[in-house]
Write a structure and sequence with these properties.
Elements (H helix, E strand, L loop, with lengths): L9 H15 L1 E7 L3 H6 L10 E5 L8 E6 L8 H8 L12 E4 L17 E5 L24 H14 L7 E7 L1 H8 L1 H7 L5 E7 L14 H13 L7 H4 L21 E6 L3 H8 L11 H5 L6 H19 L8 E5 L10 H4 L6 E2 L2 E2 H9 L6 E3 L21
Parallel strand pairs: 3-5, 3-6, 6-7, 7-8, 8-9, 9-12
Antiparallel strand pairs: 1-2, 1-4, 2-5, 10-11
Length: about 400
């Protein structure tokens, strides 16, 4: 902040604050899940604190419609990384903000969120590090780590059902990143909780992670997910139809999960997902000299050779998606942007310059698919053809 801006009057600051709230969305208070059933289940975050969510009540025609959105934030794959996570908002509700802004798919304004604005909207906070699959009864007396993500999922669902979700006429679970994986892994379970007459669907935003070797030829992500599943005792919450034929870690990957899901599912993903490029294709350990540093911070800085590798990644991503079949109930919005998560940010979800495929915004595509107005299955042309992209540029800590 420049020195001169410190002298802005309190009145002008208030106007700015209100403008920011309007732009960023409705502020919603936190709810801690401390019910007797949740306590009895041992449904707690990594550090033993109560799980939490934020609920904005529906209104008008949306009072019996529910959107349950799962927060993202990666995973911890061993005791060391889970201990680090335990001290943050991704492992403890004690570290979470007590109020957060709802925007994008969570907005309560029809101009910003035309199909879901007046629904009951929930953002489930993420504090287990396993996409809500962990379940280990014993707590190590030394680390005091609690691996209870699956119990958190059930406790939150029970709490929401008791608050009216059991009467839902429409329901959608969604999530970003690790939350997008959650919406895949728990899609059919969510459907099973709701009335048979309800329209129930699932949306995964940036959650379709693929089993790709990194640029050094190592299967880094497969080994990582295997460690996640082992550490968290997740195997019991993965489909036995998968774990009976593949190593459990591979059953954490959507390409080995999605074709078994019965509930309608919409996959929203960038073909050059920036998280996957930075952490699966080019993790730091695969690029000691830093040859890829500029490229993976800004796709416009990639060399011709690096772009060929990225196009190969896109090819493998599209192949993994294609292997899931093209059921009429499946939605697809696969654009060629360098970005990660597109449903929570207003400018990406629905605005005057949002990303589009076939002249259709993400919000319009998801809404038309959910309400069966029209199917939507579109895949973008290769980078750099899409002028509607909001490509992410990351700060490079190596630069002065």
């Amino acid at each position: 902040m420049a020195n001169g801006s410190l002298h802005v009057s309190w009145c002008r600051a208030l106007v700015c604050a209100l403008a920011l709230v309007a732009a960023d969305g409705l502020l919603v208070d936190i709810t801690y899940v401390e019910t007797a059933p949740a306590v009895a289940k041992g449904a707690v975050c990594l550090d033993g604190s109560a799980p939490a969510y934020h609920l904005a009540r529906g209104f008008g025609s949306g009072v019996n419609s529910w959107l349950v959105h799962f927060e993202g934030g990666g995973w911890c794959n061993n005791v060391t990384s889970c201990l680090q996570r335990k001290r943050t908002r991704l492992g403890s509700s004690k570290e979470m903000a007590t109020q957060i802004a709802f925007s994008g798919i969570l907005s309560d304004t029809p101009d910003y969120n035309p199909d879901f604005y007046n629904w009951n909207k929930v953002k489930v906070r993420y504090c287990d590090g396993s996409s809500f699959t962990s379940d280990v009864e014993q707590v190590d007396p030394t680390t005091k780590l609690h691996y209870r993500g699956a119990r958190i999922w059930q406790a939150v669902m029970d709490d929401l059902l008791a608050k009216g979700m059991d009467k839902a006429e429409n329901a959608l679970i969604s999530g970003c990143s690790a939350g997008g994986l959650t919406s895949i892994l728990h899609c059919d379970r969510f459907h099973d909780l709701l009335p048979p007459s309800a329209r129930v669907k699932c949306l995964s935003d940036a959650g379709f992670f693929i089993n790709e070797k990194d640029v050094s030829g190592v299967g880094h992500i497969a080994a990582f997910f295997n460690d996640v599943v082992t550490t968290h005792g997740s195997v019991k919450n993965l489909p036995s139809s998968c774990t009976s034929t593949l190593p459990p870690g591979l059953c954490f990957l959507p390409q080995n999960e999605v074709n078994q899901i019965q509930t309608p599912l919409f996959i929203l993903n960038a073909a050059y997902d920036s998280w996957q490029v930075r952490n699966i294709l080019v993790p730091g350990v695969a690029d000691p000299p830093g040859t890829w540093r500029s490229c993976k911070h800004d796709i416009d800085q990639c060399s011709a050779a690096q772009l060929r590798v990225l196009q190969g990644f896109r090819d493998d991503f599209l192949k993994a998606v294609a292997e899931q079949g093209n059921s009429a109930s499946r939605g697809l919005f696969i654009n060629s942007c360098f970005v990660h998560c597109q449903s929570e940010t207003q400018e990406l979800w629905f605005s005057s310059d949002s990303p589009m495929l076939g002249n259709t915004t993400i919000a319009d595509a998801v809404g038309a698919w959910f309400f069966d107005r029209s199917p939507f299955q579109k895949i973008d042309c290769p980078y750099p053809c899409d002028s509607t992209c909001h490509n992410r540029v990351y700060d490079d800590p190596s630069r002065a």
